[in-house]
Amino acid sequence: MTTSATEHQITTVSGWEAHRLSTKELEVTVIPGKGGDVHSITDRASGVNVLWTPRWGLRPPNALPLPGVPEALALDRSGGGWNTMFPNAGRASVEHGVDWGFHGETWLTPFEAEQIPGGVRMTTVLARSPFAVTKDVTITGNQVTVTESVTHLGARPVDVLWVQHPAFGEPLIGPNTTVEITGCQVNPDMPEDLPPTEQPPRWPDHIEVDGAHHDLSQLHADRSGVARLAFLGAFDDEQVRARIRNPELGLGVELEWSRADFPFAWYWYEAGGRQDYPWYGSAHSLALEPASGYPSGVRRARELTGTATTIQPDETVTKTVRLTVTSA
């Protein structure tokens, strides 16, 4: 990692107030009003934004809601980028008498923002769960750091799922792109809420629900009809490192986090595999997502794997993920 001063500019993106953080190496756009998302991370030398944006882009804050079920309404507002999923991730879950929707509340919640050295600090209080959230996004040279703290404001213990969701897109993601990660197990999805009975394989081998074996370290061409979902865990090292590299582009990203903070990682890959809503075969994205538990939906994490995290009243929990843009 190199070091240079960080410039801070307030601008707009699709009608949202945006904080643009710049060093000699990177330009990072953060949108406090839309979940504190990291909307883009652009390598200034190549002009490449390493994050993914869905085909509909970031809808403006005054866009009229479309009719539909809650998951579709949430996806309408997604906008891609790097999101925070808390206190739920993945499937909606009814908790404490209220719907914790698809991917939880935080990624759609407005934050208040203030400038801090090297970046922006954002704060909010959630409406459907008893948590205050603080999110710091800072950059130094070619590295972006996201540090989050949640404080329990309620009077009873609450189970949560906490997932960081950086989604990477073209041109970083392509058929020549390779993926590496600290040694780990590769757990399959459980679409029928039935835990697998066999010992999971080791990275990069992935066994789909239908029994097919796949190599998660190798990606594919756009619209090749591929989709993957796996849950990585039992990492060999305390510091987990993941690398996504495109040698043809000469660019890569490295993610790093503590196994104590996030003992799992969700692997989600789309290369035209889902032919119906929402992607219609057109999405090409890879997300490597540091996670507190699995599978998706806090109720399912609690019941199927026992990996929901319990936060006590008055407790504050802090977690950090770092992303470095590199030459592949």
Structure description:
This protein is mostly beta strands and about 325 residues long. It contains two helices and 25 strands. It has helices spanning about 70-75, 300-305; strands at about 5-15, 15-20, 25-30, 35-45, 50, 80-85, 95, 100, 110-115, 120-125, 130-140, 145-150, 160, 165-170, 180, 185-190, 205, 215, 225-235, 240-245, 250-260, 265-270, 285-290, 310, 315-325. It has an eight-stranded antiparallel beta sheet with strand order 9-10-11-12-25-21-20-15, with no helix packed on it. Strands 6-14-23-22-19-16 form a six-stranded antiparallel beta sheet, with no helix packed on it. The chain has a five-stranded antiparallel beta sheet with strand order 1-2-3-4-5, with no helix packed on it. A hairpin with a 4-residue loop joins β4 and β5. It starts with 6 loop residues before the first strand and ends with a strand. The mean pLDDT is about 95.
Number of strands: 25
Low-confidence stretches: none
Q: Percent range for helical residues?
A: under 10%
> Would you tell me the structural class of the helices and strands?
mainly beta
Largest sheet: 8 strands, antiparallel
General form? globular
- Taken in chain order, the helices and strands follow as EEEEEHEEEEEEEEEEEEEEEEEEHEE
Number of helices: 2
What is the CA-atom radius of gyration, in angstroms? Answer: 19 Å
